[in-house]
């Protein structure tokens, strides 16, 4: 039997690496990317059955890289996880001090690239009746000082995801807020935050989308984990 295929962006560390490890342990074939080729190679080497993993280093904001990802996926894609994100400059500036070029970069990675990647792999997703998961943030719905650029990019991603779900009812399409986690990105944004959950602790919420798919929409990992705990 041919294993299902997942494309996970930003898979060299944090939530992307944790999701890749969980899917690999389930026997999935993976296509993964990250900007740091060396770090991505190290992550892949530590995965179960690395021979079933295709690493494509590059930047999701680059159209040529997205085309390479689509080619690596092939004719059928069961799961796309739009996880790669750009935080923007740190320390996080007020909107009055956010350089427009930095905002354009954040939007290019966090909003434009996920939609463009869906477009690139849409035939493969539709062939599989697949699932699209775009990683969102509570900054998309809450007004946190300093998080305006990142939050705006994730709010736009939420809206794109909601419309995609309506336009493609044959797919399962979700925006998922994983909550705060102990990741390099969160440490860069809020170095004083402590006692955060590891990304691996959040992975069961994402796996539930595959095992017991809820209706499409914007979801919080905390709510998915609560439902899972009650089962």
TrEMBL record:
GO MF entries: oxidoreductase activity
Gene3D superfamilies (UniProt xref): NAD(P)-binding Rossmann-like Domain
Alphabetic keyword roster: Oxidoreductase
Pfam assignment, any one: adh_short
Family under the similarity heading: Belongs to the short-chain dehydrogenases/reductases (SDR) family.
TM spans (from-to): none
GO cellular component terms attached to this protein's record: membrane
Protein name: Short-subunit dehydrogenase
Protein's organism: Geodermatophilus tzadiensis
Keyword Aminoacyl-tRNA synthetase: no
Lineage top rank: taxon: Bacteria
